[in-house]
UniProtKB/TrEMBL annotation:
Binding site for (6S)-NADPHX: 38, 109, 160, 228
Biological function: Catalyzes the dehydration of the S-form of NAD(P)HX at the expense of ADP, which is converted to AMP. Together with NAD(P)HX epimerase, which catalyzes the epimerization of the S- and R-forms, the enzyme allows the repair of both epimers of NAD(P)HX, a damaged form of NAD(P)H that is a result of enzymatic or heat-dependent hydration.
The protein's name in its UniProt record: ADP-dependent (S)-NAD(P)H-hydrate dehydratase
Nucleotide-binding as UniProt keyword: yes
Gene Ontology MF terms: ADP-dependent NAD(P)H-hydrate dehydratase activity; ATP binding; NAD(P)HX epimerase activity
Amino acid sequence: MMQQINSILKIPPRKPDSHKGDFGRVLVIAGSYGMTGAACLCSEAALRSGAGLVTLGIPESLHGIVATKLTCVMTHPLPETHLKTLSDMGRQDILDFSQRFDVVAIGPGLSQCVETKRLVLWLLQNIERPIVLDADGINALAEDTATLDKIKQHVILTPHPQEMARLLKVYTTKEIQSKRKEIAEKFINSRDKVTLVLKGNNTIVMNNEKYYVNTTGNPGMATAGSGDILTGMIAALLGQNFPPFEAAQLGVYLHGTAGDYAKQAVGEISMTATDILDNLPKAFLNHIQNK
Ligand SMILES: NC(=O)C1=CN([C@@H]2O[C@H](COP(=O)(O)OP(=O)(O)OC[C@H]3O[C@@H](n4cnc5c(N)ncnc54)[C@H](O)[C@@H]3O)[C@@H](O)[C@H]2O)[C@@H](O)CC1
Ligand SMILES: Nc1ncnc2c1ncn2[C@@H]1O[C@H](COP(=O)(O)OP(=O)(O)O)[C@@H](O)[C@H]1O
C-alpha cells in the first residue's frame, strides 16, 4: 500500500564555513534554435535554488546568445545538427563532461529533432549521475520507454499531462487528468529508479513507495517556461543531497509557493515565468529550518 506524504522537509541553514562545492554541481542539457529561453530559465532556476555551480550545455551556434543572457551560469558549446539542435556527435563529450557534475538535467527546449532524441536515449542509458528529465527529454523517452530500465542511477521525470500521454500511449490527456493518481501508480509500478512528477493543478510526486499531492501554485503558472524553472529547481535540490523523492517534492512545493508570491505581485493574467523565477528567493527565504 502506497503511503501518502503530507509533511515537507525544511532546508537546513548553511554552515558558516560552507563552500560552493558543498551545494552541488548541476549540468543542464537544454535548448535549440528558437528555444534558448527554456535553457536559460532552467539553469537560472537551478542557481536560484541553491546549486553551487551550474553549467548549461547548448548547441554551439546558440552559445553566444545564452552567454549574453546568463551571467552566473557557465556555458558549454556542444556539436549541433543543421537545425541547430544538439547532435548525436556530442554524446561522448557530454558523457565525459557529466562526470564533473553531481546532477544532470535534460530536456527543456531540446526540440523533437530525430537525431537529438537519439542522443537523449543514449545519454539516459550511459550517464552515471542522477538525472532530471523534462519536456523534449520526455518526448525522446516516449520513443523507447524500455530505456527506463537501463538507467544507471535514478531519474526524476517531470511530464505535464500531454507529455505523460505521449509516454504511456494508451491514454488521452483527458483520461490522464481524470485518474491522475491511478495512472501515475500504474506507470511507477515497481520501478525503483524512477520518481514521477505529474504536473498540473495538484501536481503528484510519486515513487514506488510513497506519493505527495501538492497544493501550492495557481493557474497563473500555466505560462510558457514555468515547467522549465521547476526542472532546474529539482536538479539543484538533488545536488544539495535531498533524496530524489524529497528533492522533487520540495521543488514542486517551492515552485508553487513562488508562483503564489508572483500572483500577489502581478496577478494570474500577467504572470510570466520570469515572475516565478524572481519570486524564488522569497519562497526559499520562508522555508529555511528554524525560521
Ligand atoms: N522560452 C522557451 O524557450 C520555451 C520553451 N519551451 C519548450 O517548448 C517545448 C515544447 O513544450 P510545450 O509544453 O509547450 O509543448 P507540448 O506540445 O509538449 O505541450 C503543450 C500542450 O500540453 C497540454 N497540457 C499541458 N499541461 C496541461 C494540463 N495541465 N492539462 C491539460 N493539458 C495540458 C496543452 O494542450 C498544451 O498546449 C519544450 O521543449 C519546452 O521546454 C516551453 O517550455 C515554453 C517556453
Ligand atoms: N492551474 C495550475 N495550478 C497549479 N500549478 C499549475 C497550474 N497550471 C500549471 N501549473 C504548473 O506550472 C508548470 C507548467 O509546466 P509545463 O506545462 O511544463 O510548462 P512549460 O512547458 O511552458 O514550461 C507546472 O509545474 C505546473 O504544475
